[in-house]
Amino acid sequence: MKTIVNISRFIVGVLFIFSGLVKANDPLGLSYKMQEFFEVWGMHSFNNSTLAFSIIIITFEILAGFAVLLGWKMRLFSWLLLLLIIFFTFLTGYALFSGKIRECGCFGDCIPLQAHESFIKDLILLVLILVIFPYRNQMKPLFSRTFAKVVLFFSLVLTFAFQWYVLQHLPVVDCLPYKVGNNIPEKMKIPPGAIPDSTVIMFTYEKNGKQSSFTAENFPADFDDSYKFIKREDKVVRKGTAVPAIRDFALQTNYGNDTTQALLTEPGKKLFLFLKDGYKPGDWIDRMDMIIAETSKKNMKGFLVSNLEIENNRKGFFPELTPLKTDGTAIKTAARYNPVLFLVDGGTIVEKWSAVDFDQALRYLSATN
Fold this sequence. Notes:
The radius of gyration is 26 Å and the shape is flat. It is an alpha/beta fold. The chain folds into three domains: 2-169, no CATH class; 198-238, no CATH class; 260-366, 3-Layer(aba) Sandwich (Glutaredoxin), CATH 3.40.30. Helices cover 45% and strands 15% of the residues. The longest helix is centred in the N-terminal third of the chain and has 25 residues, at 74-98. 30% of the residues are buried.
């Protein structure tokens, strides 16, 4: 039994560390996924706190993983892990059985799991933790208490530092559909070999004040003119995989015209400055002015993409950039910082920088033909 407990302990520790590190690469991704849950539950007041929750959960996952591997304070961490996996299992179970959330975000965008895959993964972890739990008082630390404290301290510091870095400079490993090298129009297409949703046509009729729905194959035996037609709809009975990587991305002019395909199929290099919820003061504005001045010499077109209405007269803010409007969710997916600058050649993303790295952008664009 000791061997089984140690194997379970190793698997749990490694999986928690791995899961935490993958999510630490993009804390905003987990934050947005938490907002999705809160939206479904009608708990909108928590939306402003999801990033803090995300950072705390990620940090705890990594610390708990190291604590289990080291065997440090197993009485405490066994309880914490059990409570955490019960909570995660509830979330993935809700996503699976409610059908309202396609993915749980357990491993971020780098390893997207469907709801049923996440639920099975959490059930396995729950079983492994339940194997460990009865023996929590008998587990001995693998190393000295001092060594364990040093490892956990540096794990804590490095986890916070890594999350701070990616929140400022964009994810180190970019797993988003808008990563460098991707062609946006191609990513907006349904992938080849994808399985479409399986649907059935449902008819709704009313009789004697009561509405009933049925398919063409199971109309009631007494169906006659006493049934009043209400509606016809396609009901999804099994979700497919026919979903493009980039969805709901549309660029509109001030006149409401969709210019997405026209811009992204036009040859030549272009700049797209993604700005969400209006202007925020900072040094980045001066650096952006320098970038615009440099690229204007090369006749490179520039666009300001925002979720807000932007007038042509913007009080001196980047008048050289053509204003475009898109959905705020699309900006959150494309830009993990506010603002982010994209260099696009045709429809392919060549480079992208957060505002913190606009100095690098200026050097890069200065050397670009």
